[in-house]
Amino acid sequence: MLSIKNLHARIGKKEILKGINLEISKGEVHAIMGPNGGGKSTLSNVITGKEDYEVTEGSILLDGKNLLDLAPEERANAGIFMSFQYPIEIPGVSVSNFLKAAINANRKARGQEDISAQEFLQKVKEKSEMLEIKKDFLSRSLNEGFSGGEKKKNEIFQMAMLEPKLSILDETDSGLDIDALRIVSNGVNKLKNKDNAVLVITHYQRLLDYIVPDFVHVLMNGKIIKSGTKELALELEEKGYDWL
């Protein structure tokens, strides 16, 4: 579903990604681990189209479509979703209104009519129950005054409502206590199916105890230097990265 070949990217004159190759098929969960500064967040930002980064070589294909030709909002409409490490606050825009606008933007891109009020409310009810989200949460301004756990839970709620093809979770576990980690992880696991895929970026094995990956990749100095199964994450937890 996602095919990244020989991807090079820089910010200013500094080259950060130095030849990334990655293939993700439908139904798979991939985890990317590695030390700070290795390029993990840069990779997620380049996939989603953050404009600070310049791609100098390589390709990113989603279902055969070249994402590098698309603006960030077009990539979102094509099925890319990213849960941010530090979600921003948007005062005056409720969670509910934000989600409805996002869903309708996706539908418009596919040539569909706006979601009906009844269908939207039914979907909200279903997904909020899945993620243990209280009703008053939906009327609050997006992320304003939210705790760290609430912000991350809201990101997964957006993922649940938008039903993307590829979900990128950029250090979703940072700042979460055990209960919040469990709720967020359970939500991700319930949303996985044979037609979508998840890319988890994390420093810690503990998240991968909840969201079990099919493949683990180590990203250092702008390259994927080792790939393996979930056992690789356990080895990294025990040994660190120096042995690589």
Give your account of this protein's structure.
By secondary structure, this protein is α/β, with parallel strands linked by helices. The chain has a single domain, classed as P-loop containing nucleotide triphosphate hydrolases (Rossmann fold, 3-Layer(aba) Sandwich), CATH 3.40.50. 37% of the residues lie in helices and 29% in strands. It has eight helices and twelve strands. It has helices spanning 40-48, 72-78, 95-109, 117-130, 148-162, 178-191, 205-210, 230-239; strands spanning 2-11, 14-24, 29-33, 54-62, 65-66, 80-83, 90-94, 141-142, 166-170, 197-201, 215-220, 223-228. The chain has a six-stranded mixed sheet with strand order 6-9-10-3-11-12, with helices on both faces. β9 (166-170), α6 and β10 form a beta-alpha-beta unit. The model has no long low-confidence stretch (mean pLDDT 92). It comes from Apibacter mensalis. This is Fe-S cluster assembly ATP-binding protein. Keywords: ATP-binding, Nucleotide-binding.
